[in-house]
């Protein structure tokens, strides 16, 4: 069994991708709206389709290392069963989504072919 890596604050910038489906859409919407207002962070559009390497519907949160130590535990405590991919933004998309990727909740297999 592969151990899920927990997020570490070692990079300047990050994305958190909140994954959802039709049944969990309202939970994700409420979570992301609360992040937007509570932390004053940029929250992207709600994609009700697969986008990029993400195999699920998703919403992206952009944040920096200064928010990491407060945001990550808050997301973990408030995700209500949603899976959240947290990854670094280093400019190397493949490594960002593999070597520099962490999970809150259950990991989901990404479609990495676009980065190869």
From TrEMBL:
Residues in coiled coil: none
SUPFAM superfamilies per UniProt: DOPA-like (SSF143410)
Protein name, UniProt field: DOPA 4,5-dioxygenase family protein
Organism lineage: Bacteria, Pseudomonadati, Pseudomonadota, Gammaproteobacteria, Oceanospirillales
């Amino acid at each position: 069994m592969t151990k899920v890596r927990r997020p570490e604050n070692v990079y300047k910038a990050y994305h958190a991708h909140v994954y959802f489906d039709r049944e969990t859409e309202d939970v994700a919407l409420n979570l992301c709206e609360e992040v937007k207002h509570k932390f004053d962070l940029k929250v992207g559009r709600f994609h009700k389709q697969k986008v990029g390497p993400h195999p699920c519907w998703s919403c992206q949160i952009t944040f920096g290392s200064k928010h990491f130590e407060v945001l990550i535990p808050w997301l973990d405590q408030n995700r209500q069963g949603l899976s959240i991919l947290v990854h670094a933004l280093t400019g190397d998309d493949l490594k960002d989504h593999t070597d520099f990727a962490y999970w809150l909740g259950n990991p989901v297999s990404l479609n990495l072919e676009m980065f190869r």
